[in-house]
Structure formats: structure tokens, C-alpha cells
Structure prediction request, 114 residues.
Amino acid sequence: MVYSTETQEPLYKKVYNELLHKIVNKEYEVGDILPSEPELQKNYGVSRITIRRAMEMLQTNGYVKKHSGIGTIVVNTKHSLQLKKISSFSEDNLNGNPFPNWYCFEIVDAPFQC
Prediction:
């Protein structure tokens, strides 16, 4: 495995982090096609397998999607939840069930008191 001399992290992670930074900072927006593997190889000065591993990480983490014959496209990266109302656990239970219950479970291999 080839490591970056500055940070001792694998080069594919360095490329991944740089591409992710560009996606998060909207240099590459949703729907944009990322540069081809040969272009990225040239830009980052790394091997094709390094680029592929970085792209696989981006795809696994939901930032891009590969399309055969088209390229790698940035997808919707919105991973936050839209909260309409903040409520406590008790409120949630009372709203869904007027008689909330609790249960006591025993772990067989450990001493337990309820």
C-alpha cells in the first residue's frame, strides 16, 4: 500500500478526502459528472487502483453513483434529518400508546437484579 509522505495515510484515503471536500463544498454539485479515472490519475499523480479505491469509498458512503457509459455522478448528499418537532421519549410513548410499558430482561451469563 502506498502512503502519503506528509500524513502516513493511504493515498486512496487522501484522494477520497480531497474529492469529498470538493463535493461537500459544492465544487462538484449534485448531478455533476466527476472527471474520468485517467484525468484523476493525472491530477493527483497516483495509480488507477488508488483512484478506483477512492471512488469506491465515495460510492459506498453514498456521495456518488457510477453509471456505465456515462461516468461517476454526484448524488444527493443530504444526510441530515428534517425534524418537525422535538419531543421527549415519554411524550412519544404517550402519544403512541396511552399505557406505556417497560420490560426487564435478564442476561443469562451475568448477575442481574431488576
In short: Helices lie at 11-24, 37-44, 48-60, 89-96. DSSP finds four helices and two strands in the chain. Strands lie at 64-67, 71-74.
